[in-house]
Amino acid sequence: MNIELANGKTISISTYEWLFVIKDEDLPEFFQSCMADDLGQHIENPFSSKSPFGKLDVIEDEEVEEEN
């Protein structure tokens, strides 16, 4: 299971740990300690609201006809 932290990095933990090991009252401390230890990695996620808007490459019809 991948979880994106508030600093934009993503960590992976098992579903078992998420459901049964980490208690609900310990979640804020867990997230804070992950960010303090700088855990995780940046993953390009196109569905994240934090990802910048990209640029679409548009191919004109004339260029497509010339290639064919």
Can you characterise this structure?
The structure is a single chain. The chain is of the alpha+beta class and 68 residues long. It has one domain (2-67). 35% of the residues lie in helices and 9% in strands. It has helices at 15-21, 27-36, 61-67; strands spanning 2-4, 10-12. The chain is elongated. The relative contact order is 0.18. The mean pLDDT is 77.
What Rg, in angstroms, do the CA atoms define? 20 Å
Q: SS-based structural class?
A: alpha+beta
Number of beta-strand segments: 2
Number of domains: 1
SSE topology string: EEHHH
End-to-end CA span: 45 Å
| Residues in β-strands, percent | 5-15%
Task: Please tell me the overall pLDDT.
Answer: 77
Q: Layout of helices and strands, plus pairs?
A:
Layout: E1 2-4, E2 10-12, H1 15-21, H2 27-36, H3 61-67
Antiparallel strand pairs: 1-2
Summarize this structure briefly.
With 68 residues, the protein is an alpha+beta fold. The protein has helices at 15-21, 27-36, 61-67, and strands at 2-4, 10-12.
Keywords:
68 residues, alpha+beta, two-stranded antiparallel ribbon, 3 helices, 35% helix, 9% strand
